[in-house]
What does this fold into?
Amino acid sequence: MSNALTAAAAGFGTGLSLIVAIGAQNAFVLRQGIRRDAVLAVVGICALSDALLIALGVGGVGAVVVAWPDALTVVGWIGGAFLLCYGALAARRVFRPAGALRAEGGTAGSRRRAVLTCLALTWLNPHVYLDTVFLLGSVAADRGPLRWTFGLGAAAASLVWFAVLGFGARHLGRFLVRPAAWRVLDGLVAATMIVLGVSLIAGACPPARTELRH
It folds into this structure.
């Protein structure tokens, strides 16, 4: 029983450490929470999607990384490009604050767009696969028979994080109704996305070869 609790706690901590970094998905959930627009649907989609992706990783997809190391290179390039594009869009909103989101309720149409955008940011973002499928899948493989307990802890971390981020963001609404606050938020998102994108691409690049001359 203690080994199972340890594995679940390790999964929770590992999953949380990979999720809490500000990214495209987290920034979207935060904005939806502040706008009070389709929060339950967005949180549910993110948590359920993470649970499914973690299950894929724990079920053996993470082992592909060991068998085919180039998989991380491909994901790194694609994910880095995705994050750089998202960071560029956020940076553009910093200099054009009129296009920033407002902390107010949305219409039925915006809720549909919110669901579609959430699905796109979740399932079309290679960085999500890198974290949930590849990284968590590889770490879970070391747990042997307790790998599913580890995965359950990671899925629980995802649910807790997105619930706190989405529903807790409502309390920040009165502080983020000013355009200046949105510019700060978008600036933070842009900087983080660009750093993450560059780091992913840098990690995907093969190490430079040095030749010794005699």
Q: What stands out?
A: DSSP finds nine helices and no strands in the chain. The chain has a mean pLDDT of 76. Residues 70-95 form the longest helix (26 residues).
